[in-house]
Amino acid sequence: MANGILEINGLNVDFETPRGRLHALRDVELSVQPGQVMGIVGESGCGKSTLINAVIGLLPSNARLGGGEVRFDGSNILTMPPDRLRNLRGQRMTVIFQDPMTALNPVLSIGQQMTAIQYRSGASSREKKRRAVEYLAKVRIPDPEQRLSQYPHQFSGGMRQRICIAMALLAEPELVIADEPTTALDATLELEVIALLKDLQREAGCAVLFISHHLGAIAQLCDDVAIMYAGEVAERGTVREIFHDARHPYTRALLTCDPGRIRDATRRLPTIPGTIPDLRRPPQGCIFEPRCPERFERCGEHPEGRSLSSTHVAACHKAFDLAPLERLHA
């Protein structure tokens, strides 16, 4: 869809390595609309972190852009002057990092950190402190005014992640990038943080790019989902389309491996046979072909995205032929 707050068009990113050029992202197409929560799912090595770094303009020095655009509110981040990009980050675009144990400065109090990130606001010190207290209360930190003087080690992991969420929302951004924000938390805290993030996103009205490998978190929080595999977007659509009518074999394999879908007691959990291909020499045809149970002769040709609806696209030659997973398990 056009006119999104974030538009990624034909993005290609390579990395120069001692063993050759690694093709990390290839022809990535995504759109995040204002107020929408877009989920990005995929196993380790699929390109999620590279995609985030491209969006926030923090690609490492050995990265090479092979074409494409990352447009935020119409402006291409990849060609944006550094000073303009710095003004964008932390104001209109913020990040919730993966590990709450390392995201906060251990030698500064929470209050110091929450007032310091408001340095662009022009508000008085009293107003900055008031807003810090307000946002700690929003993320359900008890006795927020007193806890401003405390340090990160005096908070639990779940509370630290909620503080990180408060800091990300403090600038009232238009886009929040949540980089696997529940990975370091136990299952109970994970559900709590997801529910909190969902409530705050609705209240703030910001768009969220939510990165996760947890299908349950994606289903609970997101409006749309993109499934990534080996640097490509294999399938994208609404949560209902992806979870109830997946048409790419990789998406279907991920869903089959989800413990929440296993109906009978078993000692052996399902897995996807094989490994991600060497991205220095990716296959000429379908990137998933070596591991795909549906492969046939035409898989030697690289598949284009096939539109199954106005919101549902799958990069598979058999996208129109595969029956919905629900029907197969009935």
Characterise the protein shown here:
The chain contains twelve helices and twelve strands. The strands form two sheets. The protein has an eight-stranded mixed β-sheet, sandwiched between helices. Strands 2-1-4-5 form a four-stranded antiparallel β-sheet, with helices on one face. Strand 7, helix 8 (187-204) and strand 8 form a beta-alpha-beta unit. Helix content is 31%, strand content 22%. The two termini are 34 Å apart. It has 330 residues and is an alpha/beta fold. The chain has a single domain (6-107, 151-281, 289-301), classed as P-loop containing nucleotide triphosphate hydrolases (Rossmann fold, 3-Layer(aba) Sandwich). The model has no long low-confidence stretch (mean pLDDT 90). The longest helix is centred in the middle third of the chain and has 18 residues, at 187-204.
**Number of helical regions:** 12
Topology, number of strands: 12
Unreliable spans = none
Reported by name, the CATH topology is: Rossmann fold
Order of helices and strands: EEEHEEHEHHHHHEHEHEEHHEEH
Task: Tell me what portion of residues adopts beta-strand conformation.
Answer: 15-25%
**Major sheet: order of its strands?**
6-7-8-3-9-10-12-11
CATH-assigned homologous superfamily: P-loop containing nucleotide triphosphate hydrolases
User: What does the oligomeric state look like here?
Assistant: single chain
Instruction: Report the helical percentage.
Output: 25-40%
